[in-house]
């Protein structure tokens, strides 16, 4: 069986996590690497042994020798770049978030449906071996009653000189989409679809809301709780409860690889990351395996993979938690320092 020829668009920070997986995966080869920054492009191509390079995504659209594409560009560019390849019918992996607002994601989902394109969003925590294991274990213990996610992050770091130009004001205000989607998506990963949301928000350090609290009700009948603060040192935490049992997922220096299940009158159970999640960025190997299988078969990868329609439901949930509009009120072009 021949390997899939994959194009990777974007050679920046997140690409440095995807490329070790893709260049070592037996089912694919990185046929071409693309980035508008020639120095970054050349450096990454040399590091990962990629002989072909392009500086324009449009050049890739003119090729007929590609089987799939990874879109790993910045949040303000991702929807525009991904839409071109989805419209062309090329299986497309879209790094999170699939747009700066839920309307971006909705448009991409509609485009994928219209053209029958396999498309998957990179919410890789769904593929953590520990999350998969604890989800299965809690299902054995009974239906979930509550899911609590603390998706805190200190935005102070985003205002430091080396990051001011990387993350502009629009991205900082919509940080729950730009980065918080990873943690908040765990509400739907464990709880399923959301029936309704009751939320409050406030501002403490910045001139925009930087604290959010929400209570959710899932269609299953379970309750969800989302807590998000951006104004103090912080970490991720998730807690799942069923009658008589609790699972705790806490962050650490290596990602959230501390998972404990406590059952009444029984010793605690502990789950650790498997070998793939220790060798590569956690979740990335299984995530790539799922996408590449879908690209080869032409079928949308099954759960826990996130289709664009699935990701849109997560983005809509974030709309409710943060009480933000589905569309960006400003002209996004004002925040684009360069084309991608």
Q: What does this protein look like?
A:
By secondary structure, this protein is α/β, with parallel strands linked by helices. It has two domains: 4-123 and 285-306, NAD(P)-binding Rossmann-like Domain (Rossmann fold), CATH 3.40.50.720; 126-273 and 312-322, Dihydrodipicolinate Reductase, domain 2, CATH 3.30.360.10. The chain contains twelve helices and 14 strands. It has helices at residues 15-22, 38-48, 57-61, 78-87, 102-115, 129-141, 169-173, 175-178, 181-191, 275-279, 284-297, 308-322, and strands spanning 4-9, 28-34, 53-54, 68-71, 92-95, 119-122, 146-151, 194-202, 211-218, 223-229, 236-242, 245-250, 258-263, 269-271. The strands form two sheets. Strands 8-9-10-7-11-12-13-14 form an eight-stranded mixed sheet, covered by helices on one side. Strands 3-2-1-4-5-6 form a six-stranded parallel sheet, with helices on both faces. Helix 5 (102-115) runs antiparallel to helix 12 (308-322). The longest helix has 15 residues, at 308-322. The chain is globular, with a radius of gyration of 20 Å.
End-to-end C-alpha gap: 34 Å
Content-based structural category: alpha/beta
Give, in spatial order, the strands making up the sheet with the most strands. Answer: 8-9-10-7-11-12-13-14
CATH class of the largest domain: Alpha Beta
Number of β-strand runs? 14
Q: What is the radius of gyration computed over CA atoms, rounded to a whole number of angstroms? A: 20 Å
Main beta sheet, described? 8 strands, mixed
Overall pLDDT metric: 93
Taking pLDDT < 50 over at least 5 consecutive residues as the criterion, the unreliable ranges are 334-340
Quickly give the CATH architecture of the largest domain. Answer: 2-Layer Sandwich
CATH topology of the largest domain: Dihydrodipicolinate Reductase, domain 2
What percent strand?
15-25%
Number of helices: 12
Count of the domains: 2
Could you state the order of secondary-structure elements as H and E?
EHEHEHEHEHEHEHHHEEEEEEEHHH
Helix content: 25-40%
Shape: globular
Q: Any idea what the CATH superfamily of the largest domain is called?
A: Dihydrodipicolinate Reductase, domain 2
